[in-house]
Design goal:
The protein has 2 helices and 8 strands; from the N terminus they run ββββαββββα. It has helices at about 45-55, 120-139, and strands at about 1-10, 15-20, 30, 35, 60-65, 70, 80-90, 100-105. β1 (about 1-10) and β2 form a beta hairpin. Helix content is about 25%, strand content about 35%. The N and C termini lie far apart (about 40 Å). The protein is of the alpha+beta class.
Length: about 140
């Protein structure tokens, strides 16, 4: 069985919003790209927009869908993490589940203790940061 989960790489200029999981969450205090589980009859795009609104009070604009990463989850299950590169369209950041969040440049992200499932997404982001940032600047 595959559990499908979305995550948002929310960019602002040269920085990305990184969120630290709350102490009472699974994988407590590890860092992640925020997001959540896709509900029945929900698209991945609708899921990430809903989750970011619920968790961070932000409306986001999706720019690009990145490649999924598969990660062992529970006995007999895989987690499929589906990343979306986004920008903030509206809203003021409010942490509703996370311990903290910070805007990080790519080189700063390595110092965070990332949830293992996010590491492949982090590597993809760092490989594609320059391309995506250039595309945004010329748009």
């Amino acid at each position: 069985m595959v559990l499908k989960v979305t995550c948002a790489i929310i960019i602002n200029g040269s920085t990305v919003l990184c969120a630290q999981r709350g102490a009472s969450m699974s994988l407590p205090l590890q860092w992640e790209f925020p997001g959540g589980k896709i509900e029945a009859d929900e698209s991945a795009e609708a899921c990430i927009q809903r989750e970011i609104k619920e968790e961070l009070n932000l409306d986001i604009r999706i720019l690009e869908r990145g490649p999924s990463a598969l990660h062992p989850y529970k006995e007999g299950q895989l987690l499929e993490l589906i990343p979306f590169v986004c920008t903030v369209a509206d809203g003021e950041l409010q942490l509703r589940e996370h311990a903290q969040a910070r805007w990080c440049a790519p080189h700063e992200m390595d110092s965070l203790q990332w949830a293992e499932a996010d590491l492949e997404i982090l590597a993809w982001w760092k490989d594609n940061f320059t391309r995506i940032k250039s595309a945004l600047e010329t748009a």
